[in-house]
TrEMBL record:
<dbReference type="GO" id="GO:0005737">
    <property type="term" value="C:cytoplasm"/>
</dbReference>
<dbReference type="InterPro" id="IPR036291">
    <property type="entry name" value="NAD(P)-bd_dom_sf"/>
</dbReference>
<dbReference type="InterPro" id="IPR001509">
    <property type="entry name" value="Epimerase_deHydtase"/>
</dbReference>
<dbReference type="Pfam" id="PF01370">
    <property type="entry name" value="Epimerase"/>
</dbReference>
<dbReference type="GO" id="GO:0004029">
    <property type="term" value="F:aldehyde dehydrogenase (NAD+) activity"/>
</dbReference>
<protein>
    <recommendedName>
        <fullName>NAD-dependent epimerase/dehydratase domain-containing protein</fullName>
    </recommendedName>
</protein>
<feature type="domain" description="NAD-dependent epimerase/dehydratase">
    <location>
        <begin position="3"/>
        <end position="214"/>
    </location>
</feature>
<dbReference type="InterPro" id="IPR051783">
    <property type="entry name" value="NAD(P)-dependent_oxidoreduct"/>
</dbReference>
Amino acid sequence: MKILLLGATGTIGSAVLSELLQHDHAVLALARSDISEQALRQTGAEVIRGDIVSPSHWSTHLCHVDAVVHVAATFCQDMGAIDRKLIDELVAQGNKLGRKIRFIYTGGVWLYGHTENQVVSENSPFNPISSFCWMIENSALITRAQCFDANIIHPGIVYDRDSGALSGFVPDKGQIEVWGSLETRWPVVHVNDLASTYRLILEKGCDGESYNVCGEQGVKVGDIADAYRKRFDLTTQPVVRPVEDVIAEHGDWALGATLDQLMSADKIKRELNWRAHHNDILSYINEPNSPFATSPS
């Protein structure tokens, strides 16, 4: 299968790229710069130049692929409008093909809002934070498009060794910072486990299905902070910043990291036989070969 991968150099996208290539799929990756193009070619991917802001410059390449995996986002103020323009262009090109191709769109756990003590499933109603409301409408456009066999993935909080949720936990001065509350719970998923779900859905997914993906249903942020304190032998307690201060500094999207959430991945386990290989984030932080094995500066 040949897959057009959007966001191939990001945290999720680079893991998806590796997963697909390791399982003998061909990847056509979008690259914004010379540096990105060179890095992507070194993996064995075919590359087209362009970005998601100007999709008309490269969208005709849709005729050369069997599927699209969309894990790209600009994380700017206009990211919803940019994503909508991208989808409109891809639907228009898809309608010219005379055949269906698979399209996997990436949503996220923040679309469920505060879940309190309820473990949300794919049947749970959305209650998105304002910064990501557009994902619901845009994913619906993909699902309704006659040219696509569409699937939606809602990942939990994504982490890995070099980036993702864990990378910002210990600032340069060694003071752990928590947003909102130590009692906040995150559904978490290792990026490699998440990447395998994209491949499984490409190979075996049914049209129109959405899947929640997490390796653990909900881990307290305070417990993650404690794991860091033990790793680095820190004597200081975490600084808990009020939600309003965090939003004032980082923007409305930062509210997502303060949501208390529980999420189930039972559906993808049951239907596609997916299993998480990383199911203990606290032990992961303290593994000997962890990137957190040396003290912060």
